[in-house]
Design goal:
- The complex is a heterodimer of chains A (115) and B (112).
- By secondary structure, chain A is mainly beta.
- The relative contact order of chain A is 0.34.
- By secondary structure, chain B is mainly β.
- Chain B contains no helices and eleven strands.
- Chain B is globular.
- Chain B starts with a strand and ends with a strand.
- The chains are: A mainly beta (115), B mainly beta (112).
- At the A-B interface, strand 11 of A face strand 4, strand 5 and strand 9 of B.
Chain lengths: 115, 112
Amino acid sequence: AQTVTQSQPEMSVQEAETVTLSCTYDTSESDYYLFWYKQPPSRQMILVIRQEAYKQQNATENRFSVNFQKAAKSFSLKISDSQLGDAAMYFCAYRTPFGNEKLTFGTGTRLTIIP
Amino acid sequence: NAGVMQNPRHLVRRRGQEARLRCSPMKGHSHVYWYRQLPEEGLKFMVYLQKENIIDESGMPKERFSAEFPKEGPSILRIQQVVRGDSAAYFCASSPSGSEAFFGQGTRLTVV
C-alpha cells in the first residue's frame, strides 16, 4: 500500500521569505501523480500544484514550486515570497493515474506566516 | 459551472441518530470520492462511486456507514446510529475520469 509522510507538523516563515515543506512517499508503482493541497481555515481543499512522476521537470505555479526526487521518493514544496494568505495546512497527496483515482494524504504541515 | 456542492455545511446529531451527508458533483463529473478528516489529521479515503455503482469501499467502516450515488440526484453518505467518534469533517470530491478531483467545502459532523 502507498503511504505519504509529512514529518513537519508545523512550520513558520517570515513574510516575503522562502519556506520548504517536506514530503516523502512509498510506492512500488513507477507511474503516479503527486499533489500539494492547501487547506485554509475555511476548510476548502485547494489544489496548489501537481506533478506527474514520468516528467523529470519540476512543476511550478507562480510562487510555488516542487523538488521532485523520484529515486529518493521525495516531493517537497517551496513557497517563495511568502504572503499572509499562504497561512494554512498543507497536505501532500499521492494517487495512481489509472482506474481508481483515490488520493492518499499525508498528515499535513501547518504553515504560519510571521508579519 | 458550479463547484462541488456539499450540504449541510454543519450537522449536529445526538448519539444514536442518523446522519445524511449530500454531495452534488460538478456538472459532467461521474466519479465521486468521500473522505473523512478527523481533527488535526489528514484526509482518509472512504469510498469511491460511479453512477449507481460502488467501485471501492475499502476505507469505509464495515458497520453503520453506507454510500450511494444514484442515477439522478446527489451522492449520499449515510451514518446510522452515530457515536462521538464519528465527529469529523467529511469531504466529497468529484472528477471526470482520468483527471484530478475537485473538492467540496466539506460537512462538519458533530455528535453530542
